[in-house]
Amino acid sequence: MLTVRPVRTADLPAIERLAFDSGIGVTSLPADRDRLFERIQRSNSSFEHEATAGAGYEYYAFVLVDDGQVVGTAAVAAAAGFDEPFYSYRNEIFVHASRTLRVHNRVHVLNLCHDLTGMVQLCGFYVDPAYRQLGAELLSRARLMFIAGQRLRFGKRIIAEMQGLHDEQGQSPFWNAIGRIFFDMDFPQVEQAFVTHSKSFIAELMPNYPIYVPLLPDEAQDAISQVHPDSERTCQILTREGFETDEYIDIFDGGAVLTADIDRLYTLQHSRLYRVEVVDSLPALAKTRLVGNERCAGYVAVLAASQLADNGVQIEAETAETLGVAAGAWIRVTELQLG
Amino acid sequence: MMIIRPIARSDLARFMELARVAGVGMTSLPAEETWLAERIDRSVKSFAGELPQVEQGYVFVLEDTARGRIAGTCALEAAVGLKTPWYNYRIGTVVHASEELGVYKRHDALFLSNDHTGFSELCSLFMHPDYRANRNGSLLSKSRLLFLAQFPDLFSDIVVAELRGVSDEQGSSPFWEGLGRHFFSMDFSRADYLTGLGEKTFVAELMPKHPIYLELLPEDAQAVIREPHPDTRPALKMLNAEGFRCEGYVDIFDGGPTVQAYTREIRAVRDSRLRPVQLAKSACEEGERWLVCNTNFTDFRAILVYGATDDRVTLSAEQADALMVGEGAKVRCVALSPAHRA
User: Which sequence ranges are marked TM in the entry (chain A) (predicted)?
Assistant: First the structure.
């Protein structure tokens, strides 16, 4: 059974392997053992301690497990940037108009901003490609189920950075047009710098004046707000949830930064709590749904067959056991979006 | 004789002819009769002392008295940017550095500025091709410097001159194509034309307000920043010799250099002297060339004179008539060109 649970220290080797496989562009998952260990420790303490929205340091990391094997990981940070500014480019339109000359031009401008600082951030997402379908949806949305269950731990707005366009050699057209000029570094080198330096530390070297998009080479313009093919599915899962792609982009590779109001996300609006009813067998037509318990440190979410009744949900014993719940407990249930 | 004098209302037809010869390349002299008439009117009123400083603009013509032709024109604006904003790009330095990351990068960026607001401006210089000889160009251009020297209170402490930037024979400017073009639905020649008509402010207001990193511009656009048009190089050389320097300001449309100097430090201003006139039977025909003007504001006149003038200026009767002076009157004079220093 595909299961999502909080990461444990023992998962470190598996996480390290995933981080290595994730390659370029997933900067929130550095292929560096010390950094990953630190993250896991931070996650452990976040799950165990009481927290409220706006506290800042909480970082909740999860793993996707199949038959005892860790095959994916994903996280939620309570406040993007933690105690540092979180940089992004905001897509803006300047109108250059003159009544006298009868000219009216809309000019696309990228404005460096800290707008997203302190928002809840979905990050560190990577699944083994064999689990890109159902596994990815479970892993991604289990975080939203967790947020729904632990609503007071999180603020109002949520973001997710999507990996931007780059080729197999790691060349990013957006980086080459802007960042490279300011760093003399290739994109993969910068990714390496992220391992030892915070992203905002590096962002502070980026141009702080607005960038007029029409001045950029075509291939850089074309990369703005785009999503790397490897991340398309992830992006699709989140846009179905109600995330929007238009307003912000990553300052390094130009990839879309998705934003949403947490309370308006599909999972928040449509997941519901039901009382557990354990049954020996479910009807053949019982649907596979996303099901999660309401615990924090003991959080578990699974993909499982279930049958909804008035206030109850029928699940099989194995599911109940995996979730660690008994009959009469409350569990959160929501429909699959993409299947 | 070649005489510099203020433009007169009766010059309109001949002024228009000159503007036609100037053609498309010369945007500060558009062949638009109403525009030229207004320009003359403003100059006449300025010389009559009827305008406030913000509106004062002095237009001079070089007249070939033998043939009754206008050979060229030039102008001086008392103070730019006081009625409508005056724009330049200032090339500034931005350093992005991190010792920890081993990064130190120095960048040039274009900052839109109004820094020259209130400065005086040398402008609208045009010489008819038939007269581009015999130092007529220097007489035409530098006579303004004598005017500045004689009437410093009318002008700012700093004088600027914008030099035409690089464009090809089709009138296309690499700087415009790399920058301005993206903000307009307009060709450079059109923008340039509007500029000549005094609509520069409108056009400028469509330009990007935020600094532009030079390295984000195409290479051919970067290459022409601060570069004068090949035809303008002699003018730049002359201004440089007089002490004008490019202090990092360029034109917002074609990237051409704007040069500037402190008025009192301009060679022709600093070195000019008032000397009494001594009448002679005939004009001296050899020796050093001197630029000489009278001290009359409304009837300002300037001519070229040969010969040494250690303590007085020797003029023929014809030259004295041209300058409207008599024996013993004070005239202002300066060597036409800076002395070659050993």
Answer: none
